[in-house]
Amino acid sequence: NSIRSFITRSTAENIYLTVVRPSTEYGNMVYANLSKDLSSDLESIQRIAKITCSMAYRHSSHEKLEIEIGWQPLEYRRRNQRLTLMYKLNHDLTPDHLNILKMPKLNLNNPRNLRNRLTNFDIEEPRSRIATYYNSFLPRTTRDWNGLDDSIRSAISTDSFKTRLKSLNPFKKNALYSHFDNFENVNHTRMCLGKSGLNYHLNQIGVHEDGHCQHCNVLENVTHYFLRCSRYDAYRNELIEGIHSILNEKNIVVKNNTHLIHMVLYGCNMLNFDMNVSMFAIIHQYIKRTGRFNK
Predict the structure, then answer these.
(1) Using one digit for the tens of pLDDT, what is the confidence trace for 217-237?
(2) How many Å separate Cα 37 from the centre of its chain?
(3) Distance of alpha carbon 293 from alpha carbon 184, whole angstroms
(4) φ, ψ for residue 105 (rounded to 5)?
(5) Cα separation values, 5 from 13, 44, 88, 199, 248, Å
(6) Which of 88, 115, 203, 232 sees the fewest Cβ atoms within 10 Å?
(7) How far is the C-alpha of 290 from the C-alpha of 180, rounded, in Å?
(8) What local confidence, expressed as pLDDT, does residue 175 receive?
(9) Residue 212 clears pLDDT 50, i.e. is over it
């Protein structure tokens, strides 16, 4: 946090991804049976990194941070790394001392297995009598492996297998949020996350008494700030005209204010990246000119 204001967001993200996160993942094959409490402790490290890189408020929604920053949860990454090792074991791509971990393929002619719709890629799960071993690397990874689709397990190389695993990733980063690196983008991001310097958001965390706009005496939420507050009428006309000029290039019709605010916060999926960048630049100019978030 002490250096975040002096470096770009992309630099902060690179520091975490190349220095901090690898330290939390070192030797993670050994602790495959990590308890939920310890797993949550590790995830909290990544949450701190997300808040630091995006300069979000610490009260921001975990789910919205996941969408905004686009990083896979550490537990998800550990699972993929275990599966990658299992792929290497099944294709004799590991050192000799690891070959003792290789499990035999299931016998598809066994009457017990015929009922389970197994395929040639399924391997036999080692028997477990205690929960500790049941959740350890080999049994757990075997279950995860058998649960994968054949289209993934049939990959012809390790790189291809990793690529197919990544295609299952539900966490897709919105590059618009990290494209800009200015004070306006920080406040724009905070509004997207639902915790910003607007009085309505401050009231939700107990910092503001009623959440009302000091000028209009109504709730100062995102819609009020961008579309209704009379204090910023002079700047709003340019904001609306600029957004509509971009939307008109693709013949996009704004259905209502809710639709417009959604595009203001998250961009428009009917526009290409460059057009969304242009729209965000107009929005950031509005934020700058209003001076609402200046200290």
Answers:
(1) 999 999 999 999 999 999 999
(2) 21
(3) 9
(4) -75, 150
(5) 13, 22, 43, 24, 37
(6) 115
(7) 19
(8) 76
(9) yes
